[in-house]
Amino acid sequence: MNPKIDQYDQKILQLLQEDARMSHAELGRQVHLSQPAVSERIKRLEASNIIRGYRADINPKALGYEITAMIRVSTQQGRPYAQYVASCPEIIDCYTVTGEDGAVMRVLASDVEHLQRIINELNAFGSTSTAIVLTTHVSGKAIAVPSLNENKD
Amino acid sequence: MNPKIDQYDQKILQLLQEDARMSHAELGRQVHLSQPAVSERIKRLEASNIIRGYRADINPKALGYEITAMIRVSTQQGRPYAQYVASCPEIIDCYTVTGEDGAVMRVLASDVEHLQRIINELNAFGSTSTAIVLTTHVSGKAIAVPSLNENKD
DNA sequence: GTTGAAACAGAAGTGCT
DNA sequence: AGCACTTCTGTTTCAAC
């Protein structure tokens, strides 16, 4: 799909997903390239929008969010939830999906009262179905380059 | 909840979620603190596990993942899917939740055949329900400090 | 909290192979 | 494409305030 991605790029992408603040020199040491070579590759990966940016990974619980919930909303036509979703800080993921449930969201709340307030507001857009997250097995796992995965044989 | 988080920390966390590679000097300019003061605060936020790390944000589509799907798995007792989930590179999120569906996963696939292979493997752990993502409204929205949000009045 | 200095590390540009 | 070299910027630690 993207013929320009080689093993060096794959490894750089992997390392930057583990630690986005790793220096170009350190990346070069790990992939056996010089620092300018790494810098040039990263610039190209950023320019081609393969690297969209670099984000600090924040621990919600450490900030007081005791509850994570997955809320499915069977959205009704003509109810524009996109704007609400963008403005509601507790909704950190929101996808429109196929099937009965028009939207799936991941929501953070300090406590059950807080969660209920959010559910009440989401009910304006359709019937909701809430599932509390008990365990987060993986969240934001590093993305691998698919072609390099499949062409290993 | 965390009495040590003030407006400076909140702003630093916000900026680092937008650009994790921003320099401490630049952060200092934006929050009106000196660079050593910013460095000390970040060190404290990292030590207290509020900042868990820094991740490159990779564009799945640019790497050839044309399909994102939400798969719900009604897991049956005694089927340990956690290990499979960890080892399957296509599963990038996985949560155990309350309710009928024991697990909710976000999955990347190159095409429908690729998606079907993953669903087939997940069927070993229980009956699955797959919804294709049509629109990603928000994914990984920046987390705000809840106490500072609510105590604005 | 601040500024300023020194030592070190990293980023970016240049030229060369 | 790659590397070596230089220069500028940033980080860290220290001092004194």
Which keywords apply here?
Alpha-Beta Plaits; alpha+beta; homodimer; 2 domains; DNA-binding; Arc Repressor Mutant, subunit A; 153 residues; four-stranded antiparallel sheet
Write a structural description.
The structure is a homodimer of 153-residue chains. By secondary structure, chain A is of the alpha+beta class. Chain A contains six helices and five strands, in the order αααββαββαβα. The first copy, chain A, has two domains: 41 residues, Orthogonal Bundle (Arc Repressor Mutant, subunit A); 73 residues, Lrp/AsnC effector binding domain/regulation of amino acid metabolism (RAM) domain (Alpha-Beta Plaits). Chain A has a four-stranded antiparallel beta sheet. In chain A, helix 2 packs across helix 3. Chain A is elongated, with a radius of gyration of 20 Å. The two termini of chain A are 18 Å apart. The mean pLDDT of chain A is 94. At the A-B interface, helix 1, strand 1, helix 4, strand 3 and strand 4 of A face helix 1, strand 1, helix 4, strand 3 and strand 4 of B. The structure holds a DNA duplex (17 and 17 nucleotides).
